[in-house]
Amino acid sequence: MSASLYSYYRSSAAYRVRIALNLKGLSADLVPVHLRHGEQRGDAYRALNPAGLVPWFQDDRVAMAQSLAIIEYIEEVHHAPALLPAGLANRAYAREIALTIACDIHPIGNLRVLDKLSADYGATPEGRAAWNRYWMAAGFAAIEARLARTAGRFAVGDAPTLADICIVPQVYNARRFGLDLAPYPILAAVDAAARELPAFIAAAPENQSDFQEG
Ligand SMILES: N[C@@H](CCC(=O)N[C@@H](CS)C(=O)NCC(=O)O)C(=O)O
């Protein structure tokens, strides 16, 4: 499979897809899209993805956006190792955790939302960070309660799943915005365990070709 992933080193949605590809042992050409420079809003990129967001993934069959849909596609094409756990309930819980992050937490902390808060409502850099911390804390409290019932070494049992794929990038964001993780000890433990795995290490922002300090 020849594949390309349009990515930005600290895009948490692109980070999810990078982890999934690595867990499957797949490679894709990474095409950097510099979000801070606004490349995602340029005509060239919008011709690919009219939504103006990363990630964008393409191979010989699909050309598509939305990290979770991309991961589900990859899962359907390459079954092993499975990114969902065994057992109907556990698969539902892994999806629940993933969607809490992808639907309830991530979109309201996105760059374009923070930029709108600054442009139209005068949010300062500290105000933007406080906004992000507030919504992450709300979502993490719900996830911590779920993890109390599902976690083993990882979020749902003892193998990494879609839940961990979403948790690690979001906890990366939480650290970046200075959220205290002490109230979420299971989340912190699961994140730490996943970040020891080669697939997660290779996908980390600091290990991307477009990584920049600061
Ligand atoms: N729901 C989408 C979210 C994509 C998204 O919001 N990507 C962010 C980076 S994590 C982005 O491109 N932001 C650019 C901007 O806000 O201008 C997904 O899961 O792929």
Task: Give a description of the structure.
By secondary structure, this protein is an alpha+beta fold. It has two domains: 4-81, Glutaredoxin; 88-199, Glutathione S-transferase Yfyf (Class Pi), Chain A, domain 2 (Up-down Bundle). It contains nine helices and four strands. It has helices spanning 12-24, 43-48, 67-77, 88-105, 111-121, 125-150, 162-176, 185-194, 198-203; strands at 4-7, 29-32, 56-58, 63-65. A four-stranded mixed β-sheet has the order 2-1-3-4, covered by helices on one side. β1, α1 and β2 form a beta-alpha-beta unit. α4 runs antiparallel to α6 (125-150) and α7 packs across α8. The mean pLDDT is 97. The protein binds glutathione. The site of glutathione has 16 residues, from α1, α3 and α5.
Summarize the topology.
Elements lengths: L3 E4 L4 H13 L4 E4 L10 H6 L7 E3 L4 E3 L1 H11 L10 H18 L5 H11 L3 H26 L11 H15 L8 H10 L3 H6 L11
Helix pairs in contact: 1-3, 1-7, 4-6, 4-7, 7-8
Bound molecules: glutathione.
Glutathione binds next to helix 1, helix 3 and helix 5.
